[in-house]
Amino acid sequence: MRLPIGELLVRQRVLTREQCEQVLERQRVTHRPFGELAEQMFGIEATAVEDAWAEQYAATTRWLDPRVENIDPAVRELISRRQAWQFRVLPMGYDGSELMICTLQESLVRAMNFATRQIPIQCYFVLATPDALAGALGDHYPMDGMTVGDLMAPMPSLRRKAG
After folding, report:
1. Is 126 in contact with 105 (CB distance < 8 Å)?
2. Angle at 8 between CA 150 and CA 156, to 5 degrees
3. If you ran DSSP here, which 8-state letter would residue 16 be given?
4. Where are the alpha helices (DSSP H) in the chain?
5. Are residues 66 and 128 in contact, defined by beta-carbon separation less than 8 angstroms?
6. Which tens digit of pLDDT belongs to each residue from 95-149?
7. 3-state secondary structure of 123
């Protein structure tokens, strides 16, 4: 079941129920994205909205184990080993004209930003556990010393600090 972003933010205690209703009222008038309005109206951090969106996406997309899936060798050259580990992405193959990429729920926003900028093909994302993705990256994009622990380390922010 796909929960609305507002409900997820309320469950995470980022917004109150009353604030959520205020954002929904403004959204009915402006037709702007809920997250954008919550940021503007109540100073909600963009990362909180992104986390809620990733949770929403994770509830509706396919989860798989890339260690046991067929991975098209032709897509391997789309990214480098460094990019695969840094952005936690594993191109898996084409589904029609789209490229299926596996990543982690925690890495979804950054993986999508990377793919949009660096891969000249329309992509969609499926999710895996850290162990499964690390195993598959180790098989298809081996790098000395890279482990599941590297996938679980905090990722640096893509946002520039104000100042």
Report:
1. no
2. 25
3. -
4. 5-11, 17-30, 34-42, 46-60, 81-87, 108-118, 130-140, 148-152
5. yes
6. 999 999 999 999 999 999 999 999 999 999 999 999 999 999 999 999 988 877 7
7. strand
Coil vs helix vs strand at 40: helix
pLDDT tens-digit profile of 7-46?
Answer: 999 999 999 999 999 999 999 999 999 999 999 999 999 9
Q: What is the DSSP letter of 156?
A: P
Where does the pLDDT of residue 160 fall: very low under 50, low under 70, confident under 90, or very high at 90 and above?
A: very low
User: How many Å apart are CA 52 and CA 88, to the nearest integer?
Assistant: 19
CA–CA gap between residue 77 and residue 91 (Å, rounded): 9
CA angle 7, 9, 13 (to 5 degrees): 115
Collapse the DSSP code of 155 into the 3-class scheme (helix H, G, I; strand E, B; otherwise coil) and give the result: coil
Amino acid at 120: P
Cβ atoms of 62 and 126 closer than 8 Å: yes
Q: Which two tokens stand for residue 124?
A: 């969609």
